[in-house]
Amino acid sequence: MANQLIIENEPVFIIHQRPYSETSQILNLFSKNYGRVDVIAKGSKRPKSKFRSFMQPFMPLNASWSGRSQLKTLRNIETFQQHQSLIEADHFLSALYMNELILNFLSNADPYPNLFDIYHEALKQFNFSEEHEPLLRIFEIRLLEEIGYAINFQTEALNPKEIESHQYYRYEPEQGFHLLSKDSQIKKYSGKQIKSIQKMDFSERDTLLAAKKLTRETIQFHLDGKELMTKKMYRSIKRDI
Predict the structure, then answer these.
(1) Which residues pair with 65 in a beta bridge?
(2) At a CB cut-off of 8 Å and minimum separation 6, what does 235 contact?
(3) Domain end call among 29, 61, 79
(4) 232 and 129 in one domain?
(5) Residues near 178 by beta carbon (within 8 Å), at least 6 away in sequence
(6) Cα separation of 188 and 130, whole Å?
(7) Count of the separate structural domains present in the chain
(8) CATH number, domain at 55?
(9) Domain containing 221 — which CATH number?
(10) Are 57 and 99 in contact (CB under 8 A)?
């Protein structure tokens, strides 16, 4: 068919899925070279469907699809490597949180190959690390960079002066870090914390907590008041990400 786009064996993860009819589903895929892609998996709900065993999140897959409209048709899907067990219960909501960020912030058909690799690595590490928060902070910061909302860790807001380790700063998502006096009562970040976050050095607990507060402020600002479902789920079980 003229102008028919055909993609073969593209590395993907299933980010979200929803029913399309009695027998089919629409899958939101995160692909390495084509970004977010929506496909219809025809007949995937049938017991003998070739797609059925792969309709799971957090599993690295190879997918083939075709189509000229925004909604593509899934042609084939299979695992592209031997995969360890799916995300364990302790990390399931953290992985789901990353999926929700992808759905809310990444545009369809814009490639994010570096973020895809970071996402894949985080999923692998979740099952080998008791501490999931550093992985989430890295993913959040890199996602913000990829979509043009990078946090400026180097200089003050509206000022080319470099962030200094011994100083304290307040943060505004739309501007950046503003220098504070040390006796200021405003909630603040130390320059040392800011520099450590830039290096992704979360070895000190206070830096990890500061990074969590920083990414939360930034993400909430760009969500424009929308609340993520995973945040509601975490509150219901009295945990936080």
Answers:
(1) 7, 74
(2) none
(3) 79
(4) yes
(5) 156, 157, 158, 169, 170, 171, 172
(6) 29
(7) 2
(8) 2.40.50.140
(9) 1.20.1440.120
(10) yes
Residue type, 193: Q
Is the domain of 117 the same as that of 37?
no
**pLDDT by residue for the chain (241 residues), tens digit each?**
446 689 999 999 999 999 999 999 999 999 999 999 999 999 999 988 888 888 889 999 999 999 999 999 999 999 876 655 567 777 889 999 999 999 999 999 899 999 999 999 999 898 777 788 999 999 999 999 999 999 999 999 988 999 999 999 999 999 999 999 877 878 799 999 999 999 999 999 999 999 999 999 999 999 998 999 988 887 777 666 6
Exposed / middle / buried, residue 216 (Cβ in 10 Å: 0-12, 13-18, 19+): middle
Whether 84 is in a domain gets the answer no
Length of the chain: 241
Give which of 48, 58, 103 is closest to 79, Cα–Cα.
Answer: 58
* Boundaries of domain holding 57: 5-79
Concatenated DSSP letters for 113-152? HHHHHHHHHHHHHHTT-S--HHHHHHHHHHHHHHTT----
Residues 35 and 64 in one domain: yes
Q: What residues pair up with 176 in beta bridges, in sequence order?
A: 172
- Which pTM was predicted? 0.90
